[in-house]
């Protein structure tokens, strides 16, 4: 496991003091006033190995500079119809907060199609939500609760999961690799709900391939998961697909789109989009009318991640070949 955490932090700090000014500047945007806690995240991601954690952080900082990640929240996806198309096919949103103040991120894994825009827009949108979480949501939660909050909870809805998901495995792997390489240890727990049979079977094969640190974070819940989730969050923070057994990721659950945290009409996405537009105007006061997608370099996936992706693909094809099974949840 490497040296004691206190010694590891000191060694890590010493190494970071030697980096050049551009790297130090983008590091400030990452740590948001909590440099030690940020070093600890990278140390955890590399099992407290200082050399590996240092390389990981330096690679991350260089990636941020090369891809202008510090300015990504000033690069809106426009026109609004294009952004709405992204939101309708990349189902992600903030449903609320846990009782401990952690943001609850809802993800519609099964019904996300990623088929209404170029893949670059989906990557850009994902990074923007990461940056907004880290630069706005988490600092606000920290201030409100009077203690440092730098992680979130994620609730993954598997409703509608089917074999066509394999068509997007390359894009999903790219997004996962970006998170693993540049936003390590930002999720405290993954709750998986509305699980179809194909996921349950695939999970048995994939689970042993995951690192123990990752396995401990994943909880597969019964049904829509509301019974367990209500132990850690209030009803108002439950994602809409967890509020009723069998409701799934309905786009019209409850009161129109008011409760659908995936919708662009939801308060979170309105705040996010308006924030990005305001940041864009601060950088460039001229009205924005058109913008090409932002191309971001995707780090190479680790051998372990590549093996997991290949295993998922293989397992899905097994189901495809078994009597023409249609892989969806109820």
Automatic annotation (TrEMBL):
SUPFAM superfamilies: CRAL/TRIO domain (SSF52087), CRAL/TRIO N-terminal domain (SSF46938). Pfam families: CRAL_TRIO, CRAL_TRIO_N. Residues 79-239 form the CRAL-TRIO domain. InterPro entries: CRAL-TRIO_dom, CRAL-TRIO_dom_sf, CRAL/TRIO_N_dom, CRAL/TRIO_N_dom_sf. PANTHER family: CRAL-TRIO DOMAIN-CONTAINING PROTEIN, PHOSPHATIDYLINOSITOL_PHOSPHATIDYLCHOLINE TRANSFER PROTEIN SFH2. This is CRAL-TRIO domain-containing protein.
């Amino acid at each position: 496991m490497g040296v004691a955490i206190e010694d590891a932090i000191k060694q890590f700090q010493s190494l970071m003091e030697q980096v050049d000014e551009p790297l130090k500047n983008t590091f400030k945007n990452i740590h948001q006033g909590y440099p030690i806690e940020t070093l600890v995240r990278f140390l955890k991601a590399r099992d407290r190995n200082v050399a590996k954690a240092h390389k990981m952080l330096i690679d991350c900082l260089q990636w941020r500079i090369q891809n202008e990640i510090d300015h990504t929240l000033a690069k809106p996806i426009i026109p609004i119809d294009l952004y709405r198309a992204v939101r309708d096919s990349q189902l992600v949103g903030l449903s609320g907060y846990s009782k401990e103040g952690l943001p609850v991120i809802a993800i519609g894994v099964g019904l996300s199609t990623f088929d209404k825009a170029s893949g670059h827009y989906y990557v850009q949108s994902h990074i923007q939500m990461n940056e907004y979480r880290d630069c706005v949501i988490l600092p606000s939660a920290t201030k409100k609760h009077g203690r440092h909050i730098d992680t979130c909870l994620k609730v993954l809805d598997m409703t509608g999961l089917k074999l066509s998901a394999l068509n997007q495995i390359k894009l999903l792997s790219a997004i996962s690799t970006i998170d693993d390489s540049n936003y390590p240890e930002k999720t405290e727990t993954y709750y998986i709900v509305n699980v179809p049979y194909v996921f349950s079977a695939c999970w048995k094969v994939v689970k042993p391939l995951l690192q123990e640190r990752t396995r401990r974070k994943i909880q597969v819940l019964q049904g829509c998961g509301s019974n367990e989730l209500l132990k850690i969050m209030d009803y108002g923070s439950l994602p809409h697909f967890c509020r009723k057994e069998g409701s799934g990721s309905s786009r019209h659950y409850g009161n129109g789109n008011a409760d659908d945290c995936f919708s662009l009409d939801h308060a979170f996405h309105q705040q996010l989009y308006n924030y990005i537009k305001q940041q864009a105007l601060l950088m460039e006061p001229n009205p924005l009318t058109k913008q090409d997608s932002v191309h971001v370099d995707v780090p190479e996936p680790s051998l372990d991640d590549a093996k997991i992706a290949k295993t998922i693909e293989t397992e899905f094809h097994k189901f495809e070949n078994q009597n023409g099974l249609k892989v969806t949840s109820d």
